[in-house]
Design a protein that fits this description.
alpha/beta
Length: about 325
């Protein structure tokens, strides 16, 4: 009898702890608003947290969506001076793609429209993967609007080790995504399977990329048009490379380059050197240990700290 009571007590305690954890998560998520901005002939879906005077823009990569930031936004929003926005890039998850353009300069224009629409000023822009490419284009096109740039674990077309990278086995998907419309034809209906294969293949902590993560991102690319948009981001790389090598105005605001130990870490010195050659002056590099490409999911605490430390540096 005593044993049964003890077992029942243990179950009750477990359930109470589980409920407490769920309530805590709900409370965190309630601090994030899900919004749509409409202007001209375009709409952009984005997440927002906070209403401070300093702005932080978080840009996702492929095959991800704004969802990738949801678990670290509550930690970042503890800084009450921040307004944090995380848009979905053009073509996916409710963000439309006017004129079917997918070069990173055009995508940066979307971000600028959203920033102006929300009356944000002096923003810090942090992007991972494709989002890092868009963030760099934003910094080049709208230098008066930005006070800090973070590029997380991604090479920039035309710069650094780019020419060597695109010839390696690591970049096999660059070629596949360029096969139009074959890539769409093969992946449509199999988004979850393809994204799981891809993300697990580029991560070290695969448990961090669980089924919930895969399913959430796959939903952002459900339609053929949204799947195509993601592939078009890759198909524009030649245009992006030309943009990057021809824009050489001096950039003096702080720039953070982050590389994962098992991804971009070894490329950081060459990337830094190439950016300095095109006028980027104030560069800090950092690494995320024991991580693959998906540092936000694989090492959320370490990545959050890097972003927070960078915000402090920019604002001081």
């Amino acid at each position: 009898m005593k044993k049964s009571i003890l077992n029942l007590s243990a179950v009750v305690v477990f359930l109470l702890l589980a409920i407490q954890s769920i309530n805590s998560q709900i409370k965190e998520n309630n601090n994030i608003s899900d919004k749509i901005a409409n202007f001209d002939s375009q709409q952009i879906h984005y997440l927002q947290s906070g209403s401070g005077t300093n702005a932080l823009v978080l840009l996702h990569g492929w095959p991800e969506s704004s969802y990738m930031w949801k678990h670290i936004i509550p930690k970042l929003s503890k800084d009450k001076s921040l307004t944090i926005i995380a848009p979905d890039l053009r073509g996916i998850n409710g963000s439309t793609a006017p004129e079917d353009k997918f070069d990173k300069a055009s995508m940066a224009g979307d971000i600028n429209k959203l920033v102006e629409h929300l009356n944000l000023d002096k923003v810090i822009v942090v992007g991972h993967d494709i989002g890092g490419m868009v963030a760099y284009a934003y910094a080049r096109l709208y230098p008066k609007n930005i006070v800090g740039l973070g590029i997380l674990d991604v090479p920039l077309p035309g710069l650094g080790t780019w020419d060597e990278l695109i010839k390696t086995e690591h970049a096999w998907h660059f070629l596949f995504h360029n096969q139009k419309p074959l890539a769409e034809n093969l992946v449509i209906g199999n988004q979850e399977e393809y994204f799981r294969f891809f993300m697990h293949g580029h991560s070290v902590n695969k448990k961090a990329i669980d089924n919930n993560v895969i399913e959430e991102h796959a939903r952002a690319y459900t339609t053929r048009a949204s799947l195509k948009a993601g592939f078009e981001w890759y198909r524009a790389f030649s245009d992006d490379a030309l943009f990057n090598i021809t824009h050489t105005a001096v950039i003096d605001f702080p720039v953070l380059l982050v590389g994962a130990q098992y991804s971009m870490e070894s490329s950081l010195p060459e990337m830094r050197k190439s950016l300095e050659l095109v006028g980027v002056n104030s560069i800090t590099t950092a690494t995320v240990a024991e991580s693959g490409h998906y540092i936000v999911e694989e090492k959320p605490d370490e990545t959050t700290k890097l972003i927070i430390d960078f915000i402090v540096k920019v604002n001081n």
